[in-house]
Amino acid sequence: MIAHPFSLEGKTGIVTGLANADSIAYGCAKAMHEAGAEMIVTYGSPKAEKHITPLAADMGNPQLMLCDVQDEAQVEALFAQARERWGKLDFLIHSMAFATRDDLHGRVVDCSREGFGLAMDVSCHSFMRLAKQAEPLMKDGGTLITMSYYGAEKVVENYNMMGPVKAALEASVRYMADELGPAGIRVHALSPGPIRTRAASGIKDFENLAQTAEQRAPLRRLVSIEDVGRTAVFLTSEAGHSLTGGTTYVDAGDHVKA
């Protein structure tokens, strides 16, 4: 008998991509902690340390580790630490994306080969690499979650090259769910509506995008990083044990509007 289907008591995991108090990763880490999970939280640059250290208490004072996903040694060190500390993993949250400003602000057909490759590597392929490292530690199954956006499905003005990148990420979720499902590992994409994060600030005219979404969404509001975090808890918990391979919209209903 499960005490509470939404509890994460006894579960251990990794949350990646923390940058500051506006990060979706922060919302996820707080929610995971509040649900009872223990975790390692990673950040991608030493410059982030001064912004994330004051946030530790709200996340249950997790171990904070530097992990640039393009640095194989740092990725291996992260999972070695998880293996040494717990001997298992129950969840992994991948919350990162990157594109150079020039490529992001230009037309899709004008983006450089190097820029597109970089965006795909950090925003999409890194999820696969982290999943491969996590798989052996998910001996009793687990949950892998990444972050997408509606621009993967429909054209969103100024989202530009990140649309094809996120589309590839969502397709990867489906294939990974099929491959890892027999081992009890579930794979999800969350698709939040516009949230005022540091990453979002790189999108041209983002404030106009956010205001339009707020006015158009059926719930007439934007979502918060806490909304995303609570959805991640649901999918990771026993309550979500029959769900895998999909994209879950956390956008106040904005995706249903034409």
Task: Give an account of the 3D structure.
The protein has 258 residues and is of the alpha/beta class. It has one domain (12-256): Rossmann fold. The protein is built from eight helices and seven strands; from the N terminus they run E-H-E-H-E-H-E-H-H-E-H-E-H-H-E. The protein has helices at residues 24-34, 49-52, 72-85, 101-105, 113-134, 162-180, 206-216, 225-236; strands at 12-15, 38-43, 63-66, 91-94, 142-147, 185-192, 247-250. Helix 2 links the parallel strand 2 (38-43) and strand 3 (63-66). Helix 1 crosses helix 8 (225-236) and helix 5 packs parallel to helix 6. It is globular and about 45 Å long. The mean pLDDT is 94.
Outline of the structure:
With 258 residues, the chain is α/β, with parallel strands linked by helices.
CATH architecture heading? 3-Layer(aba) Sandwich
Largest sheet entry? 7 strands, parallel
What is the number of beta strands? 7
User: Average pLDDT across residues?
Assistant: 94
- Report the portion of residues in β strands: 5-15%
Radius of gyration: 17 Å
Class derived from helix and strand content: alpha/beta
| Subunit arrangement of the protein | single chain
Indicate how many domains the architecture comprises: 1
- In spatial order, strands of the major sheet run 3-2-1-4-5-6-7
